[in-house]
Please model this.
Amino acid sequence: MRFTALQGLRYRPLAVLLLAAANACAQDADLTTLPLEQLMSLEVYSASRFNQKATQAPSNVTVLTSADIRAYGWRTLADALRSIRGLYTSNDRSYSYLGARGFLRPGDLNTRFLLQIDGTRINDPVFDQAQLGAEFPLDLELVDRIEFVPGPGSSIYGTNAFFGVINVITRRAPDLEGTRATLEAGQAGTRAASASYGWRNGDAELLLAANRGLSDGRDLYFPEFGGTAQGLDWERYSRFYARGQFGAWSLSLIDGKRTKGMPTASYGQPFNIPGGLTMDELRLAEVGYRNAMLPLHGELSARFYHSEYLYDGHFVNQDPFGTINLDRTRAKWWGADVNLFLQLVESHKVVVGADYQYNHDVVQQNFDTTPFVSYLDDRSQSKRFGIYVQDEITLAAGLLLNAGLRYDRESSTGGVFNPRLALIAELSPATTVKAIYGSAFRTPNSYELFYGIDSQGGQLANPNLGRERIRSHELSMVRQLGANARLTLAAYANAASGLVTEVEDEEFGLPIFRNLGRARARGIEVEYERSFKNGASLRGSVSRQRVTGGTSEVNSPRWLAKFNATGRLAGAWHVGVEGQYVGPRRLLDGGETAGFVLANVNFFTVGLTRHLDASIGVQNVFDRRYADPSSLGLLQRSIEQDGRRVYLKLKAAY
Model:
């Protein structure tokens, strides 16, 4: 049962390598000291599939840079995303889950977010899962920036771009030239190591990287069982990344594997008995092409990829021998996409494109290992196809119209159109207003459609599921307050229908996915950003949101507040401070979790020595006790999260 709370070497003298490493460190440091006016003019890609100023994008895109990752010591993609206004996370001791503008429904597997690495979709075709914890297949040390595009994005990306698009853009070999190594150690038996090698010669480059880590975890007391789960919260992971480029052509290889112990005794497992675990592995091979078309003032890009996803869930049976029930998934798929960007005149930009994905081998199995008894052996295939056009027209000085339309056809639910319209007005050199309308959809995945075990601790299939839909209206204003400060205001209204939700079947008393009624979300977000001449910076936001509609109100905080600040201490040492408030959240069976405030601090160096940098991070500085709501399949009403944890990291560059 799926636990559903649910990317010939030439010799170089040592001095050249050291200089390259120093330049890379300097690039990271310089980005943190740029005036906000320059940061505001940085271009984003993910909102429209072409580079444009963030103020002209048809969404309020948030960009987290490699400098941010270093400054705050984020260890997972979930850590980084939870710092963004309007986003929050939950963790059930197996996976991390992301909520947006009040939506984080029971049984979610981040299926309503499209997760990309360098523009390639990595949501698997079985669970549609966006992997955000240690199971994310890329080391954050390799990330150049993370672009988060909030709101419906199906007009250009198709399914899964429901609440937002997350595009993780990797660093290139020139940024990581030479040999680098990182060692990390922390509480709860945490240790990790990584290494990379970057090389370039003219228009050819190569980057190789690998990392491995593990954690023993802590013993966890669960009052529902009246006891402590000892040594069961362990985790280990390994990742490999390779990217080569020659001219317009590129080749990328990714392999990420994570195995996690299960201390929660989910789905009726005996408590405090070893053997329960989940294993996730994602493999990706991609050939890409990207080249300017100078006579047409445009660019042609294309990619072909093949991916594989493997999942094993080991669940301990309730018998005297503690035999294992194995839940197994294997999925293989390939896809291709092509898009053409044209700017025939200065006031008119167009993107047209198409993509296709064929899920040619999707297997879901469930069986007892000893003796072998099979409960599920489902094999399926599916495909999807989409064509889209995105059009940006300058109607007048300071007035843009961005319009997009996409048609998708999916095996299980047929065809659907999704539009997006954005009117972007520059009222003054310092003030920009955006009015945005968009719709999106999500097709039910193979797990929701076909996974069924009609027995104790099982689950019911529902092949009659339909697609989910959402329509969104948003009005926002960005006001620059001098050269180094910015204020962002946003108000939105989302209406979702047919949301696929895990509930308990009335007749059999087993979990089942169904399209439930409508849900609405309304909210206001305010964010203030400022940078200072001494290199310090701060960012703070407050979000007020309300969701109505049955189980949509579960795990939905009314208030969110975020605070991030960086500054120089002395010499090479800097500090990043992070504070977050999450309001009370309703539980599945009534009641609610208490609101909580978290504070994290990270002391880090920039150029400590010629070869070495270091950081000391403390998560949950004040050791606050807090819990996240749980979902069906767990006896616990909520899952307590980690207290204070300290990490030490050393980086060497040669």
Observations:
- Confidence is low (pLDDT under 50) at residues 3-33.
- The CA atoms of residues 572 and 605 lie 5 Å apart.
- The first strand starts at residue 43 and ends at 44.
